[in-house]
Amino acid sequence: MPVIKSSAELRNDYNGISNFCHQYSEPVFITKNGKGDLAVMSIEAYEQLLGRFELYNLLQEGLNDIRYENTRPFSEAMADIRERRKR
């Protein structure tokens, strides 16, 4: 279940919210005037999330290459890699 705090709680208990984010690697949702406004998370959790997005993008590129037949035989790719290593 998401943790939801008000902007006043963020202002008054920054350290508590920061400790929660670091301990549980989960975002805290901040409301302003009763409506969702921000999501706060630790830098580590943010970097992990960003890494996942980058991985998903690379996987999607690979799937698109397969879909559009932009591939080549494994033996050809390995021969190319070996040739590049010789240089």
Structure, explained:
With 87 residues, the chain is of the alpha+beta class. It has four helices and three strands, in the order βααββαα. A three-stranded mixed sheet has the order 1-2-3. The radius of gyration is 22 Å and the shape is elongated.
Order of helices and strands: EHHEEHH
Give the beta-strand count.
3
Q: Which band does the percent of strand residues land in?
A: 15-25%
Low-pLDDT segments, ≥5 res:
none
Helix content: 55-70%
What oligomeric state best describes the polypeptide chains here?
single chain
Supply Rg.
22 Å
Distance between the termini: 55 Å
- Inertia-based shape: elongated
**Separate helix tally:** 4
The chain-level structural class is: alpha+beta
List the strand order in the largest sheet: 1-2-3
Q: What does the main sheet amount to? A: 3 strands, mixed
Q: Taking all residues together, what is the mean pLDDT? A: 96
Structural key phrases:
87 residues, three-stranded mixed β-sheet
